[in-house]
Amino acid sequence: MKNKKKIQGVYLIADFGIIKEGPYTAIVESAIESGIKAVQLRDKDSDALTFYKRAEEIKKITSKYDVPLIINDRVDIAIAIDADGVHVGQKDLPVEKVREILGDGKIIGVSASNLVEGIQGEKGGADYLGVGSLFTTTTKKDTRKVTIQMLKRIKNEVKIPVIAIGGINKNNLEKIKGIADGVAVASAILKGKDIKRDVLELVNLFG
Ligand code: TZP
Ligand code: MG
Fold first, then answer.
1. What pTM was computed for the model?
2. Which end of the chain is less congested by CB atoms within 10 angstroms, N or C?
């Protein structure tokens, strides 16, 4: 079995609510060339065919650079394009079921906003946790606030990588540095004018 890649560093949430009809393959390629270590494809409003086609296109880029591609919510689409893994929230398929479907070779990420969810996610077979929302975000509506203190507690309780998420940008990233194993970012990368510069800045700040 191929070794699973570890999720860490600056992680791009390629959210189609933000990218819309934008040049998504070029965006992802620029971000990877500037140091992004993982890409998650998040497409809440499209039909399955559109999501699948976008995922297939993006996979060509992530494969070229050997960067893991994670699909948000949709286990079926992840299987269809042979993605590296899936990210599930607390209201998606349970992590144990996703593990049963995907087997050990795929990466599974689980969203957690408190200690119980973090510990359960790890026990259920997650490879990493997405912990947030640390700061104010407009990308996701139903977020639950996570304090830096809670992020630290979760990090101390689990062995798997902890990826901080939610409103992370160059002005607040310092607060997470040294606590989380990675930071997942959408707006601060996708809404700027210069993807390469913005990613480089985040990557340098995260260290
Ligand atoms: N889960 C918790 S907050 C969030 C997700 C998907 C949104 C992250 O996007 P942004 O734009 O970096 O706040
Ligand atoms: Mg979800």
1. 0.98
2. N
